Amino acid sequence: MHKNRNVSLILSDGTVFNGQSFGYEKAAAGEVVFSTAMTGYPESLTDPSYSGQILVTTFPLIGNYGVPPRSTNDNKLSAFYESEKIHAEGIIISDYSFEYSHWNAHRSLSDWLKDEKVAGIYGIDTRELTKKLRENGSMKGKIVFDNVTEIDFIDPNKINQVAKVSCKEVITYGNGHKKIVLVDCGVKHNIIRCLLKRNVTVIRVPWDYDFNTLDYDGLFISNGPGDPDMCEITVENIRKAMEKEKPIFGICMGNQLLSKAGGAKIYKLKYGHRSHNQPVRMEGTNRCFITSQNHGFAVDNTTLGDDWEPLFTNMNDGTNEGIRHKTKPFFSAQFHPEAASGPTDTEFLFDEFVKML
């Protein structure tokens, strides 16, 4: 019988959920969000888009396949993770598996959380918690051990999360003939892997870097956390790049920043899209895809300029899932074609981008 320290999740409306700790024992605060994915907790926790957030998993059993080793490939990218560390402030689950089994398991989820000093709670009724988040929207929350004043509530959307997670210097990967500038707003490593598989050179630059001074064949704008309105420097650089009319491809935050550069407005979703099972339809067709997603903001289709049009639409709530320019090689997707974790039905979008170069 495992006995762990009692811990509480307190929401900003005063609701308290009591559970037990299986992670690092420290108070934490952030925006409480939920994901309906059944697998992929190592990839989710290391996704920079979760920076400042406390992740609730709706799938009841977590930890049963442990976590993979922290190894890197030839390009010094994580082999099994999506970045160099855990970015979520904490993880909330219903039932934690103290035993794990998987061919690639290196250690337990609990040991990993403790090593990276990240809080974890189990024994929470995540059905009740998720229902509350769906009804009220994403809420501020805090994880406390001893008393309610251990830590204050934090609104991560008032902090420039992109600046926190972006690289600090220019990094080059691969040696292909075509050069792609990747604006790192919190890029997942599998995006870089997907580009490198297509035999290109990737020049990864910080979010506020003036990449227009570089020689490149195409521009890629990555995913990332927080409010896109914090990234006006990036938007201005994208506007300059659009004047060159070289191909541009954006994913997730990249969709929102490209849309802003084109004149559209962004708004916050009630509780966002975080899962492996979001259906989207390609506009003008009956082609539908199941996609992996992780975002809390969306593009307002009604504010798109005359030169732009929606490329994909979410079949659950009708929200924007991508845009494209009507005459120029600019397009984007709100979902994650590279998945990791999740379905790879839309990885062909990388092929479409590379063909444009």
TrEMBL record:
Organism: Coprobacter tertius
One Pfam family cited in the UniProt record for this chain: GATase
Family classification: Belongs to the CarA family.
Protein name: Carbamoyl phosphate synthase small chain
Subunit: Composed of two chains; the small (or glutamine) chain promotes the hydrolysis of glutamine to ammonia, which is used by the large (or ammonia) chain to synthesize carbamoyl phosphate. Tetramer of heterodimers (alpha,beta)4.
Role description: Small subunit of the glutamine-dependent carbamoyl phosphate synthetase (CPSase). CPSase catalyzes the formation of carbamoyl phosphate from the ammonia moiety of glutamine, carbonate, and phosphate donated by ATP, constituting the first step of 2 biosynthetic pathways, one leading to arginine and/or urea and the other to pyrimidine nucleotides. The small subunit (glutamine amidotransferase) binds and cleaves glutamine to supply the large subunit with the substrate ammonia.
Span of domain Carbamoyl-phosphate synthase small subunit N-terminal: 5-144
Gene Ontology terms for molecular function: carbamoyl-phosphate synthase (glutamine-hydrolyzing) activity
Recorded catalytic activity of this chain's protein: hydrogencarbonate + L-glutamine + 2 ATP + H2O = carbamoyl phosphate + L-glutamate + 2 ADP + phosphate + 2 H(+); L-glutamine + H2O = L-glutamate + NH4(+)
Active site: C252, H336, E338
Chain segments carrying region CPSase: 1-178
Its EC number(s): 6.3.5.5
Pathway the protein contributes to: Pyrimidine metabolism; UMP biosynthesis via de novo pathway; (S)-dihydroorotate from bicarbonate: step 1/3; Amino-acid biosynthesis; L-arginine biosynthesis; carbamoyl phosphate from bicarbonate: step 1/1
PROSITE patterns per the UniProt record, alphabetical: GATASE_TYPE_1
Keywords: Amino-acid biosynthesis, Arginine biosynthesis, ATP-binding, Glutamine amidotransferase, Ligase, Nucleotide-binding, Pyrimidine biosynthesis
Residues annotated for L-glutamine binding in this entry: S49, G224, G226, M253, Q256, N294, G296, F297
InterPro entries: Anth_synth/Amidotransfase, CarbamoylP_synth_ssu, CarbamoylP_synth_ssu_N, CarbP_synth_ssu_N_sf, Class_I_gatase-like, CPSase_GATase1, GATASE
